[in-house]
Amino acid sequence: MILVYRLSTIAVFVSLALSLSACGKDTPADSGDGNNVPVPSLEADGTGGYLFAHTGTGSNYYRMFYALSRDGKTWISLNRGKSPLTYYYGFPYIASDSDGTFWLIGTSSGAKPHFPIVWWSEDLITWKHKDLPASIMELPAGYENDTNSYGAMKLFFDPASKLFMITWHASESGLSGNSKWESMRTFYILTKDFVSFTPARKLFAFSGADADMAQIDASIHYYDGKYYAVIKDERWPISSATGKTVRISVADSPSGPWSNPGAGLTPAWREAPTLVQSPDSSEWYLYVEDYTVHRYEMYRSRTLTNNSLWEKVSDMTPPPGDNCRHGCVIRVDEAVYSKLKETYDK
């Protein structure tokens, strides 16, 4: 079952119808690169599978790479470890619309300030793109963008309203170092056509002990009448028991109000979460980057609401090659899966 993303039909949608990543900044000493994982083979079974679009390390950070899996646990790198979209720059997070078109947000490279670029594809192989004005990322007073990556932008599509939502994180103005990262908040804009956009707004307004929660890498998912935001708590562990862990917040509308996030689902020093359902839809698979070693790991649970039931999947084989950093996992049908494998697994 593919996750469906829905957005609220509140007044802002009506008016529209008429608009660095934190990876590595606070990383403990590197303890390995995961490049010695054996490459498995995948047998066709006619039911589709999963695509992992992710970045690499060093000069391959911000570039996109592909890996493929039947079961979501055993992965093979595609295209012999080379990028399938050499002009892409950013942190890939793919959404699909109601017509089955795949969409992706990135940025320009080269001279700063960078500007956003939207990409689209019918098959995840041949991509078209459109440059977007940097002005759509303009923030409310008191906040500033990292114009290198615009805070790991993510893209979501609402099949009901036919609107796209772009989310990213940004810091308070004039800060640096840890103070800058602990000021991060999540912002969003909406568009139906990538021509007109709503102004940027804050997505979360937590309270109590989480009122000052720094937030990065937030993604929103709809399931069974509820909305779930999967977020990294960007506070330090010494200032918060959930610092540097991945948490889940719940709402009745994607624009909120959002509940304070639950307990950490992962150990500290995890980020870039991506969430999908298992092949039989009986479990949730959560993938997070352990950025102390530049590798993804996997957790699973039968529910999105009980934080205590998430367990690490010890037999998950991450994509081999030039490591696996910030990315997303999506379900694909057999036609797309087979074409990806035929094109890139040679």
**Shape category:** globular
What is the average per-residue confidence, as pLDDT, rounded to a whole number? 86
Number of helices: 3
Order of helices and strands: HEEEEEEEEEEHEEEEEEEEEEH
List low-confidence stretches. 1-43
Rg over C-alpha atoms, rounded to the nearest angstrom: 19 Å
**Largest sheet composition:** 5 strands, antiparallel
Strand content: 25-35%
Q: What is the count of β-strands? A: 20
Q: What is the helix content?
A: under 10%
Q: What structural category do the secondary elements indicate?
A: mainly beta
For the termini, the CA-CA separation is 29 Å
Structure, explained:
The protein is mostly beta strands. The protein contains three helices and 20 strands. A hairpin with a 2-residue loop joins β13 (215-223) and β14. The two termini are 29 Å apart.
